[in-house]
Amino acid sequence: MDFLHKFLGIALPPLMLIVFSITWAPFLLFKFLYFLKRSKYSENVAGKVILITGASSGIGEHVAYEYARRRACLALIARREDRLQEVANRARQLGSPEVIVVPADVSKAEDCKRFVDETVNHFGQLDHLVNNAGVTRIELFEDSIQFSDYASIMDINFWGSIYSTHNAVPHLRKRKGKIVVLASTVAWLAMPRLSFYNASKAALISFFETLRAELGSDIGITIVTPGLIKSEMSEATKLSKAKATWILVKSTEGCAKAIVASACRGDMYLTEPSWMKVMFWMKIMCPEVLEWCLHLTFIKRRQTSKDS
User: Fold this and answer.
1) Closest to 234 in 3D by CA, of 224, 225, 244
2) What is the rounded distance in angstroms from the CA atom of residue 248 to the CA atom of residue 255?
3) Is 150 a catalytic residue?
4) In this structure, are residues 71 and 96 in contact, taking their beta carbons and an 8 Å threshold?
5) More confidently predicted of 192 and 111
6) What is the pLDDT, as a whole number, of residue 193?
7) Are 67 and 96 in contact (CB under 8 A)?
8) 95 Cβ partners below 8 Å, 6+ apart?
9) Does 248 have pLDDT greater than 80?
């Protein structure tokens, strides 16, 4: 058995390289044509029911507006009821025929069951679930003292999506619905000072890729990995604390538009902005170079911070 593993370790890499070199161009052509087909027959969500967590601000707020422009019915979930009402009013103005607001905390399993039940009881169906709610905390791992303070990051970013999805799956299956998951590029492009946030987003990707394999074609799953998007979590003070003011920020509106379009096409993945995919391939092909660049940038900015 050990001999077989050694043989495969030697023979398989060059064999796969030959296969890729032969099939890469036809595969890209097929993928492009398939993208055109999905774009042409993109889902019409007018009158369909969309549940969005973390809808009071940032990406969640603007995803709600984008669905509203497509005349979808909305169930908006977040802890801040006053902000949810403002978002709901704006969504109605943009064309949503009906919007309900359900104040809830996604880190609580009972809240997740309640808002899914309220949505289905009100509308009679559920077509899309957008798992968007998330929080972050910026601090060096070495400076962390009370690890219990970081539990909320996993509770909201990871478990909040799990609770919501578990309650929504039976209803989504009836409608051949879709799940949209807001992960992040930091799941594979590890940014210093965000270790717990990075881990929560990596866990999301692993979980929903597994769930996609389990559900098959019953429910579509689009995993979104945004880069740095303009929101409350990326305000100037937080970027400064994270030493990330050098990173290009994408508009929230543009990101939300791309997310909804991707979900309606039935894409498996979306990286926004799209050029961030280059960083993913750098990590696959030359991880040492990428890690060296990140480390060098982090050390240089940390030293500048100390000097100032």
Assistant:
1) 244
2) 13
3) no
4) yes
5) 111
6) 83
7) yes
8) 68, 69, 70, 71
9) no
- Per-residue pLDDT of 202-245, as tens digits, reads 999 999 999 999 999 999 999 999 988 877 665 544 554 544 55
Mean pLDDT of the region 20-37 = 86
Catalytic residue among 41, 163, 197, 269: 197
Q: Which two tokens stand for residue 2?
A: 């050990």
Q: Is the pLDDT of residue 308 over 50?
A: no
Alpha carbon of residue 230 to chain centroid: 15
Q: Which two tokens stand for residue 190?
A: 């590890």
Higher pLDDT, 58 or 144: 58
Give residue 134's pLDDT. 92
So what's the pLDDT on residue 283? 82
CA distance 298 to 143: 16
Q: How far is CA 36 from CA 3, 134, 155, 219, 256, in A?
A: 46, 32, 38, 21, 20
> Inter-axis angle of helices 160-174 and 109-123, to 10 degrees?
30
Q: What pTM does this model have? A: 0.87
55 near 76, Cβ under 8 Å? Answer: yes
